Structure formats: C-alpha cells, structure tokens
TrEMBL record:
The lineage of its organism: Bacteria, Bacillati, Actinomycetota, Actinomycetes, Kitasatosporales. It holds the Pfam family Methyltransf_11. This is Class I SAM-dependent methyltransferase. InterPro entries: Methyltransf_11 (IPR013216), SAM-dependent_MTases_sf (IPR029063). The chain crosses the membrane at residues 20-43, 49-69. CDD domains: AdoMet_MTases. One of its GO terms (molecular function) is methyltransferase activity. It comes from Streptomyces musisoli. Residues 92-199 form the Methyltransferase type domain. Keywords: Membrane, Methyltransferase, Transferase, Transmembrane, Transmembrane helix. GO terms for biological process: methylation.
Amino acid sequence: MSKNRDDSPLPRPRRPRYGVDAPAFPAVLGAAGTACCLAAGRWRPRRNAMTAAGAVLLAGTGIYLHTTLRGKLRIWERELDQADLRGDERLLDLGCGRGAVLIEAARRLPAGRAVGVDLWSGEDQSGNRPQATLANAAAAGVADRVAVHTADMTALPFADGSFDVVTSALAIHNIPSPQARYRAVDEAMRVLRPGGQLLVADFWPMARKYAAHIGQGTLRTLGPGYWYSGPWLGVTLLHAVKTT
C-alpha cells in the first residue's frame, strides 16, 4: 500500500458500487422463502411442500443477487468486447442507473465519450442518483469521458445521429405503456448514426417486441448469468445495426 509523507497508510481507492436492481423484489422473495421454511417446521401435513417452496424461493433470491451484483457485469463485459469498439465512439446508455454498463463502456473509449440518461428511480435500482454514477466513474478512473443527464428515454435531448452506439440494460420495460416503450426504442434508433449499433438487454417478451417494432435485429438469450431468480426471468439481447 502506498503511503503519504508521515508514513500513515493512504486509503485504498473505492471500487464502483452499482447497487441492486429493483431491490424490493429480492427482499420479498427472500422473506417469502424464509417464511415457508419456518412454516414447514410447524405445519406437518404440508412440511415437504413448504420446505421445497422455501428452498426454491431462497435459491431464486441467491440467483437474483448474483445476477445483479456480478453476473450481468461479466455478461456486459463480454458483449461490449464483441461490439468491436474502436475506442473513439460516442455511446449512449439508456436508463444508466449507477453506471454498470456506462462505465464498462467508458473503459473501452479512451478517445470517446459515454453518456448516460436516467430518471433516477430508487425503485428500479438502490441508491439511484446521478452523484452515485459520477462517483463510480471516478472510482473506475473514467470520469473524464463520462457524462450523465436527467432525461426521459421517450424524448431524448439529442440530435439525430448523435451516437455510434446505444445500449440499455433492463430499463425500457420499466416504462408503463407499450406505446411509450416503442417510442423509447424509436428514440434510440433516431439518435444512432447510420451503421451504429443498438444493444438492448431486456426480458424475452419485451426484447422480441422491440425487434418486431423496428423490423430488424437479432435476438440472443444471455444465459444463467442474467437470470433474475430463474430462467422464467431470463434476459435476451437485441442487437441491431442502423442501416439508414
């Protein structure tokens, strides 16, 4: 560990902390699993069923927490590597939250810019606020190439063709109405330059509808590392390249 002039240890730099996605969900899931396990000890006629239900719910809680704290980060590292970025692109992350995808992208853009937009809902991510995102960018050493804006995905404050890449990680489905979700996808395509890449990760039914709406793109499931409690809440990636 490095030291200052009076030989006292300097604090280690803080690593980025991205919080928990939809924190109420794993809290409820874990509480329900614990309640089932406790009830199994008191309700003998249904002991086996209650024990099994509790085990499934608690296992789902563990899978959820692994995904939100580590699994999704590893998968986005892989997907951004496969995007074959030159390093000078302008990238926009929709619903950036505390910056998990935004900052991982910024690491790959030494001569570029990574811009995040969000409405900063704490229901969607714990501790969600722009200051947390900027602090994470500083901790990752990429603050000089990261910017964040408070903006609605359905009405982006950017000109047509402003970005080379647009990403979004499990954010568009939080928009309440289907029509507004499609507007967000349309806005993502609008701000992309011709030849730019769209990378949207969302639950399978949503990702399929986005692809059908824009009439292009490929869909690929992202595997167990992106399960929110189990395969029934697995995440699919929509990858599209803007042609015109």
